[in-house]
């Protein structure tokens, strides 16, 4: 079942049909332009949408994309932006494993990106930013709706053929696009089917073997062993409280918290900002 605006990309529409025929998604809402695919998915859940799931929300143009802590995700005609609304219970993802969905989604995007950017290896910055060739390539935003506790929305933004400006992101890293790293790989909808397939595969792996997903994240973690500056979050979705501390990242705990040694004590961060200190 596809509900599409007039004027959407024919190529994008073809991929949506392929995803439906393969049974990877069971419904599609395809926008010519929307403020945010995550917002559209959240609105549907708040209004009692019953799926069927997974449900894909895709946009040729996104005007007000969001990142973590309310930041703006800038997108142009070369950016792939989509969200998947999923049924956690149906996927067997419960308890602490649901709390690892951000990490698992980052792993899936990293694996999919490498299919077109080999031999380059994608790295992960906790909790869910994807880096390639020294710059940020993609981000993941996972959101829940209180009225639908068994549902989750996973938003993905990937710079495919984008023209990221050279302004450094927080932490000093530049933005990066797939086309910059692998010229000729600038087809954003050519990547969509790979991404959806890998997301579903890694989520299934998370339900069965969470330790293998954690091991894959640890193998790619940019921060482990590095000196970092970190801030804590007042409340979920709330502002950073302004306090900054320093320490060395020593890895990832089994529940997804980032482990930092600071002033002789061990700290586990569940949320907040962490920036690598570059010498």
Observed structural traits:
single chain, 279 residues, eight-stranded mixed beta sheet, five-stranded antiparallel beta sheet, 6 helices
Task: Detail the topology: elements first, then pairings.
Layout: E1 2-4, H1 10-21, E2 27-34, H2 37-46, E3 55-62, E4 65-66, E5 72-73, E6 79-87, H3 101-117, E7 123-125, E8 129-132, E9 135-143, E10 151-159, H4 178-181, H5 188-208, H6 210-220, E11 227-231, E12 245-252, E13 258-262, E14 265-269, E15 273-276
Parallel strand pairs: 1-2, 2-3
Antiparallel strand pairs: 3-6, 4-5, 6-10, 7-8, 8-9, 9-10, 11-12, 11-15, 12-13, 13-14
Count of individual helical segments = 6
Mean residue pLDDT: 86
| Morphology call | globular
Terminal CA distance reads 52 Å
Structural class: alpha+beta
The helix/strand series, from N terminus to C terminus, equals EHEHEEEEHEEEEHHHEEEEE
Overall radius of gyration: 18 Å
Q: Which residue ranges are poorly predicted, with pLDDT under 50 across at least 5 consecutive positions?
A: 233-242
Q: What is the number of strand segments?
A: 15
- Tell me the strand percentage band: 25-35%
Into which percent range does the helicity of residues fall?
Answer: 25-40%
- What strand order characterises the main sheet? 1-2-3-6-10-9-8-7
Largest sheet: 8 strands, mixed
What does this entry show, briefly?
This protein is 27% helix and 30% strand.
Write up what this structure looks like.
With 279 residues, this protein is α+β, with helices and mostly antiparallel strands. Helices cover 27% and strands 30% of the residues. It contains 6 helices and 15 strands. It has helices at residues 10-21, 37-46, 101-117, 178-181, 188-208, 210-220, and strands at 2-4, 27-34, 55-62, 65-66, 72-73, 79-87, 123-125, 129-132, 135-143, 151-159, 227-231, 245-252, 258-262, 265-269, 273-276. The strands form 3 sheets. Strands 1-2-3-6-10-9-8-7 form an 8-stranded mixed β-sheet, with helices on both faces. Strands 14-13-12-11-15 form a 5-stranded antiparallel β-sheet, with no helix packed on it. It has a two-stranded antiparallel ribbon with strand order 4-5. β9 (135-143) and β10 form a beta hairpin. α3 (101-117) crosses α5 (188-208), α3 packs across α6 (210-220) and α5 crosses α6. The longest helix has 21 residues, at 188-208. The radius of gyration is 18 Å and the shape is globular. The protein starts with a strand and ends with a strand. The model is unreliable at 233-242 (pLDDT under 50).
